[in-house]
Amino acid sequence: MVNRKALDPDRDPMAAYGARLRRLREEQGWTQEELAARTGYSSKHISGVEIGSRPSTLKFSGAVDVAFGLEGTDRSFDRECRQVRHGVLLEGFPEYVHHERRAVEIRLFAIGIIPGLLQTPAYARALATSSVARGGITVNQAAQRVAYLAERQRILERPSPPMLFVVMDESCIRRPIGGSEVMAAQLDRIAEFAASPNSVIQMAPFAMGERRPVDLPVNLVTLSDRTVLCYAESQARGHLERDGGAVSSMLTGYHQLAADSLSQADSLAMIDEARKGML
Prior knowledge:
Layout: H1 13-27, H2 32-39, H3 43-51, H4 58-68, H5 77-88, H6 93-100, E1 105-110, H7 121-133, H8 139-153, E2 163-169, H9 171-174, H10 180-194, E3 199-204, E4 218-222, E5 228-233, E6 238-241, H11 244-260, H12 264-278
Parallel strand pairs: 1-2, 2-3
Antiparallel strand pairs: 1-4, 4-5, 5-6
């Protein structure tokens, strides 16, 4: 019990999932080892899910439901996991965020949408509200999504924040989100952030055409031991890649992209021109 880690279920949906798992386990009087034996997972896996360092999966949730007798009920972990996956976070994203918090360098490439770490609250709310209108998420899930983003952005406010390299496709600043005032404020936010000594902002212009070496959004994190991880996602799911060859290939593509993109000065000039067009 000496090493018992305090949990904060209000931090994000995955933390709430983990805290509930621990609470029900302890109500049964089971140790992590005993729950592990009942689910077929290791006690290390159970511990990781409880403290939020390891994401839950539908397979794991189903095994937990069998152990607790929650199959098919409104209180099932399967149902909670599906709500998290389809409402707030894609599968694989919580694990990425865990590493993002420990990163010393973050490299991002965004298409169509300003990267989350740079979004203003109004911009983020506009995106979440649109998802509600399409029936993709609930109003409560939209609020959770915006709050979770604000929590992620705190890494940029640390005394020693990670170095953040951002390449944005020109579509990010041309696509109006939330109306002219919201978009103008968002572009101001990017310009302000570019003045930070821990940031590099570049635009990949439409004129790059077929020379653009990357066609999907990319997140690359470098940890303190210089390990590099890559996270990429489709419309339905995300995936954290650790394989050296795959990550090395993506990192090479990112460097090629940055080399062909506009300089920061020219990028800020393009952003300023787009902002004036919003007014």
